[in-house]
Write a structure and sequence with these properties.
This protein has about 260 residues and is an alpha/beta fold. The chain has a single domain, classed as TIM Barrel (Alpha-Beta Barrel). The protein has ten helices and eight strands. Strands 1-2-3-4-5-6-7-8 form an eight-stranded parallel β-barrel, surrounded by five helices. Helix 1 links the parallel strand 1 and strand 2. Helix 1 packs across helix 2, helix 1 runs parallel beside helix 10 and helix 6 runs parallel beside helix 7. The longest helix is centred in the C-terminal third of the chain and has 19 residues. It is globular and about 45 Å long. The two termini are about 15 Å apart. The relative contact order is 0.16. The mean pLDDT is about 95. Bound molecules: 2-phosphoglycolic acid (PGA). 2-phosphoglycolic acid (PGA) binds next to strand 8.
Length: about 260
């Protein structure tokens, strides 16, 4: 059975002390259970202090980005190797990285491979823009982003991969795809992986939905066939919303 994931992407929000207050509040509200992994993805500067503060039975840490080279003359970058002891996950290819910082599929593939090489699980984000959706190119876009993104993985190490389907037009907009649309893309993601790596491998990969996730949709979206959790942006900054999302997932999964 695939363990559910609820991941909070704080984006470029919360300084170190604000992040610490949020974790304190979440820690009071979120129960320890075995069946749901809760991942917090703060800014780089908060990873170290939060690694000392978090209750590890409740939370894991993730980074929002990192560079694929282990070290060297790359001013301003943080390497995936540097994050080894701090983060269990790294978000790779988030649409804001793709569209605001010009990251392409080739760079993203190198980052995915570097995560796996450093024993950190990549959360590879894929998703279509509004114009790709209007042109009915959703499936082609997701297929291309995914197949290039995983190109350097083997059937052995791909099992650590997590894929987040995040329609770009749904991020931060309050707009949501219909559950059947999410299901179609989820099944495309799994069949694309099955085609390259086989059905057994594809069944183990966890697929998250992201884009305007809020507590009210949690139950319905977790019931979508093939969805294994969420990558939550805005609502992860609100301790009541985020702990409600986690609680709903825990209730559905049992203790
Ligand atoms: P949102 O962001 O939940 O605020 O739409 C999701 C994301 O960007 O991962």
């Amino acid at each position: 059975m695939r363990k559910k994931i609820i991941a909070g992407n704080w984006k470029m929000n919360l300084n170190v002390s604000q992040g610490s207050v949020l974790v304190h509040r979440l820690q009071e509200r979120i129960k320890t259970t075995k069946n749901v992994e809760v991942i917090l993805c703060p800014s780089f500067v908060s990873l170290q202090p939060l690694s000392l503060q978090i209750d590890r039975r409740k939370f894991k840490l993730g980074a929002q980005n990192a560079y694929f080279e282990d070290e060297g003359a790359f001013t301003g970058e943080v390497s995936i190797a540097m994050l080894r002891d701090l983060a269990s996950y790294i978000i790779v290819g988030h649409s804001e990285r793709r569209h605001k910082f010009g990251e392409n599929d080739d760079l993203i593939a190198k980052k995915v491979a570097a995560c796996v090489r450093n024993d950190i699980a990549p959360i590879l984000c894929v998703g279509e823009t509004a114009s790709e959706r209007a042109a009915k190119e959703t499936k082609q876009t997701v297929h291309d982003q995914l197949s290039v993104g995983v190109r350097d993985l083997t059937s052995q190490n791909i099992k650590h991969l997590v894929v987040a389907y995040e329609p770009v037009w749904a991020i931060g907009s309050g707009r949501l795809p219909k559950p059947h649309e999410v299901e179609e893309v989820t099944s495309l993601i799994r069949s694309t992986i099955a085609h390259i790596y086989g059905q057994n491998v594809a069944e183990k990969i966890r697929i998250l939905y992201g884009g305007s996730v809020n507590p009210d949709i949690t139950k319905g979206y977790l019931e979508i066939e093939g969805i294994d959790g969420f990558l939550v942006g805005g609502a992860s900054l609100n301790y009541e919303y985020f702990s409600r999302i986690v609680a709903t997932a825990q209730e559905l999964e049992g203790e």
